[in-house]
Design brief:
homodimer; Rossmann fold; seven-stranded mixed sheet; NADPH-quinone reductase (Modulator of drug activity B) (chains A, B)
């Protein structure tokens, strides 16, 4: 199954491809939650195991078209489910990835959204898993490197079923930002992302609320400018301290 | 397809299970070569993709019975082919691996035989792959740790198709030792492995060559004892130097 979201009237935004690998997607509350949390931007969402057969040409076209590619899956034995590996082995032919020196994936971003039933502290030496999530992502990071893609910091979701409502709301925002916010995740990029969203929200308000909405947006912009100044000042002070 | 080898009349030897993952085994010259190189010891060889369906009970029984488990595969995108992951996701149920605190795999050895078309020097930072083979094995090493298995140093076979005849002969011996020699790969364990093999060979000689055969075996044993003495002396000298 493929879901295509497109925000109307917005040009020049990034296209994100979310490839979900899960053998029983309908039974996964976390995957259903993430699906409902998809931002209203240019996002193509595809369930890998949901394709009856993998259409290599279509999959490669999707990859070519995307600016950011997200692989999203539960961690099974320290890796993605077999379905994603099958997708890799089938779709990512050598000719496609680095044949003829065309490198069609070069410059695109590769991000990983991984869910696990284990807590965060398990993933460290001495922890229950005795290995970091970053270390077990080595094969995918190596793939990104080979394809000349930019590897994004992994987005882990620990023990989704134990999350309280406020944590879930935070997760929605963080997840949306991971899918569509400009990288790196700096204060400036974060603010820009929120400002973008705010102005889109204001545009959708009914006429009688437009003025209030625009006022809020303008205050947000002022605060942003003020914050930028403070950040610059702080950077200058720090620089002097380093001398 | 499953192949069971058993050396007759030898008791107390180790049982090795070789699980081969390759989507087109018949077309793989390296896998065919390794299959023909299997030692005449207690070795069970199975082609994962060759099973029409994975019989979980049978697979788990095989694992329980083995002392050393070898996963053998070509490196596809820095990991095993999808078939092996499917096997992991299906056969290695949580209940089996660490349910009820029985840990049926605890203490067994896990070894990896991996073939790659890239040269050895590609697998290092700055090399063509920019990552070590050891690093990309992190998910399998973590699995071994979780199952309380002993992780053996990986056995890599680089660019099999370029190997000359003497290198292939060396590969046969090294591969057989990796499958059945006692670990670690020390001088003593290596000698023991060869001695064991030599005496088995002598037993199979025709009657008229038995005397010569036994003479060779006895010389080998004498040399071994002599070598052991020299090794001890050398160790003593080194110890004094460290003072």
């Amino acid at each position: 199954m493929v879901l295509v979201k497109k925000r109307e009237g917005v040009d020049g935004t990034m296209t994100t491809l979310v490839l979900v690998s899960h053998p029983q997607l309908a039974d996964s509350t976390s995957q259903q939650f993430l699906k409902e949390s998809l931002p209203d931007d240019d996002v193509v969402w595809e369930h890998i195991e949901g394709q009856s057969t993998l259409d290599v040409t279509k999959e490669q076209d999707q990859l070519r078209h995307a600016d950011r590619i997200i692989l999203q899956f539960p961690l099974y034995w320290y890796a993605a489910p077999a379905g994603l590996k099958q997708w890799e082995d089938t779709v990512l032919t050598r000719t496609f990835v680095y044949g003829d020196h065309r490198d069609p994936l070069a410059g695109k971003e590769l991000g990983i959204v991984v869910t696990t039933g284990m807590p965060k502290q398990a993933f460290q030496r001495g922890g229950a898993e005795n290995v970091t999530l970053d270390a077990v992502m080595a094969p995918l990071a190596a793939l990104a490197h080979r394809a000349k893609m930019t590897w994004l910091p992994t987005f882990p979701i620990y023990q989704f079923s134990y999350l309280e409502e406020p944590e879930k709301l935070q997760l929605v925002i963080d997840y949306q930002r991971y899918l569509t916010q400009k990288q790196p995740d700096s204060l400036t990029n974060r603010q820009e992302w929120f400002a973008h969203r705010l102005s889109a929200m204001v545009d959708q308000l009914p006429a009688e609320q437009q003025t209030t909405g625009k006022l809020i947006a303008s205050i947000f912009d002022q605060n942003r400018a003020h914050l930028d100044q403070l950040t610059d000042t702080l950077a200058m002070i720090k620089e002097q301290e380093d001398d």
